[in-house]
Amino acid sequence: MRIGCTPTVVYLALVAMEQQPRSWGWGNRNQGKSISRSIMTHTSKWKVAATAVVTATLSLGLACGAGQARADTGWQALTTTEARTDNPLKGFAPFNENLDNNASAFPHTMEWFYMPLNAVVKGERSYDWAELEKQLSSIKSRGHQAALRFYLDYPTKPTGVPDYLLGPGGIDQSRKYNFYDNNGTSFSPDYNDPRVQSLIKDFVSELGKNYDGDPRIGYITTGLIGFWGEQHTYPMDGNSHTDNPNGAQWMPTREVELSYYQAWDAAFNTTKLLNRNPGPDLENIKVGFHDDSFAESTLPTIDWHFMARMETYKLTERWQTEAIGGEVYPQNQLCVFNEPTDCDHAEDFSEATKQTHTTWLVNHKAFSEGYSGAALEKATKAHAALGYDLAVTQTRTVVTDGKTQVSIRLTNRGVAPFYYNWPLEFSLINPQEPAKTVASTQADANLPSLLPGQTTEVTATLEGNSGLATLCIPNPMDGGAPLKFANAEQDTEISGYLALGSVPA
């Protein structure tokens, strides 16, 4: 249930933060240095400090004068709990195909899917979005949001190259291969071919025009080049192979590859993008990264592992502004949470989560086959430990002159920020008639700036002096899961709402 609110935004404090540029929710990924609308308390190792504090009282602020009645509860503690398993845009996700309509006991708010490029591209600069709409609408109908990737070459599946490039005079189709059980089904296109370059860049531009900021989409992995769109063609990487006897390099030149990533960055200002490979020359391209062999080749024990490459290319702090995701290594999905772990090469899952600051992971077997006993408990905790973990530690109400000033102290206990700046919604609700809102307003907490270990103070003023004070963070996707707090008071009075206490106390 969502209770309507007014668009009024109340800011009680402005703090200039020395931080990297970050996205403002369903706003602009290219936004410059952000200004926090809150008082940030530094409690973490990342040394993000407030440099100036400016307090401003706005039109809806508390006007205190002589002779006015004032009731101040003082700061009241709320009860925190373990991290939640039902929060949006984080945790484990299944493939949305062939999962019995995605009915699964394992908690989730996201679904993952691949799509061949020719499902959308029907001719040169000719697009049909019906298949993409079908997938997004299906996922939305279950109250979930999507993570997705487009591909040209997926081993074992027919090519994703559009028909107009396959006929007479079309692109080279000689790079067929048997590796990865492909048996010649798909082929690797020449990504340096100008026609392939135009195909990719034109599509990315059009996709951004139509879907950037679409609340049904949480994350897009940039894909399109390499096997599975994973931006590699191993082992056809310049060395001789039975499928590549001349030792040709099947990946594009670095210049061409970077031009693809630049096209993605130019096309998307809001929706979070993730690249497969940490690499050089990415410092000015606003993308996160995804590790598709998570907890198998993640930790920096070998130079080609995910975190080793993040360290090499000085990208270890990228998680502060851009999302990290990926896939639990498929062969390890059922064994990595056994105690003791009985996978052949599994890494410590918790350590991999901490080092990468990962927010979401495809873990299909958690849904298709599932866990039981101790493994289920461990997997559920691992799912909840991904990404952000927000808890309200204290709340305070001050009633003066018919208005209620509500303040909270909000802490991020997770491993990453929440990457979209959804506004906080404060309300006074009639406790005898919960559907009736006495007063409501929104406040900007600048959630993407709230890094792990930090606390922010947010204050809003409501036009009213009685009722149940509540807090919620609605999902901008209609029917989507609201962002919930790790508090015992969450959902106790109204589903989706955190009860802050009665006014007057």
Task: Describe the structure using short key phrases.
505 residues, TIM Barrel, 23 strands, six-stranded antiparallel beta sheet, 2 domains, alpha/beta
Q: Care to describe what's here?
A:
There is one protein chain. This protein has 505 residues and is α/β, with parallel strands linked by helices. It folds into two domains: 13-83 and 395-503, no CATH class; 91-385, TIM Barrel, CATH 3.20.20. The chain is built from seven helices and 23 strands. It has helices at 130-141, 194-211, 254-267, 306-312, 349-356, 365-368, 373-385, and strands spanning 13-17, 35-36, 39-41, 50-55, 70-72, 76-77, 91-93, 110-116, 121-123, 126-127, 145-151, 217-221, 272-275, 288-294, 324-328, 360-362, 390-400, 403-412, 424-429, 437-443, 455-462, 467-472, 498-503. Strands 3, 5, 6, 17, 18 and 21 form a six-stranded antiparallel beta sheet that branches. The chain has a six-stranded parallel beta sheet with strand order 8-11-12-13-14-15. The chain has a four-stranded antiparallel beta sheet with strand order 20-19-22-23, with no helix packed on it. Helix 2 (194-211) packs parallel to helix 3 (254-267). It is elongated.
